[in-house]
Amino acid sequence: MKTAITLLGIAGFAGFLVWFALQGGSASCEVCMESGGRVHCSTVAAPTVEEAEMRGRLTACGVIAGAMDAELACQRGPARSVRCEP
């Protein structure tokens, strides 16, 4: 009986953590960047839309830029497209 109650408590706590993570106000963005004729889209989740968009830019540019100066130029340039969901 004690084992069943303990397992039920653990399952309830795990369920709460999953629910809390999903309800935590996280946002996700798909950001498409272009650099050197290459295009890459990255989908990133973060606590805010602004942070998700920034992380998406960094990730997309990191994939398509060959050198650090090209990556920085890519990050400063306009996004080809941005779609965010709060």
Total number of helices: 3
Which radius of gyration do the C-alpha atoms yield?
19 Å
- How many E-type strands? 3
For the largest beta-sheet, the strand count, sense and barrel status come to: 3 strands, antiparallel
Determine the N-to-C terminus distance. Answer: 43 Å
Helicity, in percent? Answer: 40-55%
- Biggest sheet strand order reads 2-1-3
Number of domains: 1
Please state the average pLDDT score.
83
Catalogue the unreliable spans.
Answer: 16-24
Q: Per DSSP, what share of the residues sits in E-state strands of 2 or more residues?
A: 25-35%
Order of helices and strands: HEEHHE
Q: What is the subunit arrangement here?
A: single chain
Shape: elongated
Describe what this molecule looks like in 3D.
The chain has a three-stranded antiparallel sheet with strand order 2-1-3. The chain has helices at residues 2-23, 49-64, 68-76, and strands at residues 27-35, 38-46, 81-85. It has three helices and three strands, in the order H-E-E-H-H-E. By secondary structure, it is of the alpha+beta class.
Compact description:
The protein has 86 residues and is an alpha+beta fold. It is built from 3 helices and 3 strands; from the N terminus they run H-E-E-H-H-E.
